Amino acid sequence: MLPYFCGMYTPFESMPDESRIWPFLSSVKIESDFKMTILDKAGSLLDTWTAHKNNLHASFDIRYDCLLVFAVDEKVNDASGCSIDKLFSFIKELDQYPGLDLLNRMKLAFMDTHQDWKVVSISQGRSMINDATLHAETTVLDLSIKSIGELSKAPVQLQTTWLKQYLAHAE
Q: In terms of CB atoms within 10 Å, which of 7, 98, 123, 138 comes out highest?
């Protein structure tokens, strides 16, 4: 949970379901010590995040120990090009930490047999489908989600995502 900030920070759980989100998948598990560092840095961003000099009603969360999620309630103020640029500048700064690789969209998160989330490259995921390590019922994160309301539906079976195209080749 983020501490209180002067800007328009709102606890993630209090954000409306329609709030627009930007999910960023880390290549490594975000451990608790580093999670606190990220939460502190994200809090600084949210405290000053504006669009056309208007504070954004925004929030942040880390889900599954690998997914950073920024949210804006656009019913209050729309995120603009400049505010989105500021978010991506922040993500580039975070990406300096080893292993995060947050801007690389060629990754796949799946739940392993021990109920832990693992992140691999798309090419590794494809190989894992071919050797049946990953199968139709494997839980994966669908990162095409656009709102907080969709976030709870992000863990889905592999067979319901675009990755299903590789299942036919694996049989």
A: 138
Q: pTM value? A: 0.89
The number of CA neighbours under 13 Å toward the Cβ of 100 is 19
Alpha helices in the chain (DSSP H): 32-48, 81-94, 122-130, 148-151, 164-170
pLDDT tens for each residue of 91-140:
999 999 888 999 999 999 999 999 999 999 999 999 999 999 999 999 99
Contact 60, 71 (CB under 8 A): yes
- Segment (H or E) for 24: strand 20-25
Distance CA 49, CA 77 (A): 11
Rounded CA gap, 141 and 25, in Å? Answer: 9
- For residue 147, give both structure tokens: 């709102």
Rounded Cα distance, 73 and 58, in Å: 6
